[in-house]
Amino acid sequence: MKIIDTHVHFWNYKKESLDFSWIADEMAILKNDYLPENFMVASETLQKQSSTQCIAVQARQSLEETMFLLELAQNNPMIAGVVGWVNWSNPDIGKTYTDLAKYKKLKGFRHIIQDEQEGFMSNSTFRHSICKIGCRFTYDLLIKPHQLLEAFELVSEFPEQPFVIDHLAKPLLKSHDLAQWTLDIKKFKSEENVYCKLSGLVTEAHWNQWREDDFTYALNVVLETFGPKRLMFGSDWPVCLLASDYRGVYDIINNFLEKQSRVNREDVMYNNALKFYRL
Length: 279
Description:
Blueprint: E1 3-8, H1 13-16, H2 36-42, H3 44-49, E2 52-57, H4 63-75, E3 79-84, H5 93-100, E4 106-111, H6 124-131, E5 138-141, H7 148-157, E6 163-165, H8 179-185, E7 194-198, H9 216-226, E8 231-233, H10 246-256, H11 262-276
């Protein structure tokens, strides 16, 4: 079965360590360079079984990050697409989108909204930046549970714009406090322009003592909400290494999908990414 991992990060930590201040001492494993050759080694067992490509997603909020990922993509066929970053507050952002459209592997954009204050997605300047995309690119929503309702208002205003919620909006798996998250994420059921990435789960659980059934409830909720046509596999490598190797995060999703038809499994692991990111 072909696989597109829709959420992979690359960075030169040794060169750009000041840009990764979020990597705390207890995350020491991330204080290394993670580049396409490292990803190929990490996913080696899957590469032997199938053709695995990935979407490279921004980890720094700079245009330099976007260009860095595009250069990697140009030199590495296994990078099928790039989700970059642009300055959403730039009044001439429409021109920026037009200028960047020449890069065929640039598929979408992301801002680290989870770190922003309440009301960020309602900000008229941010809404203007979404409006100016004009459906030429996708938009990854990196949010937390308390931001789901604000995100719902955003996606409702732009029904033609393709959005995807990263990491299931980071449900509170450690505390098992999932009641409000469940109510809020279910609102997206009728929003057909919104997909959801099955990614980032292990780092929301207890890093050293999670079990696969810790994720079953949340996975069932998003399967019922988005259906197999609007879900996509993502590893969140190398961040996942805080709690699991690459094969471990793949197995969580692959095992969860065992009861699904082959068609549904292929959609989640490959076909939906082709459609969403226009690969």
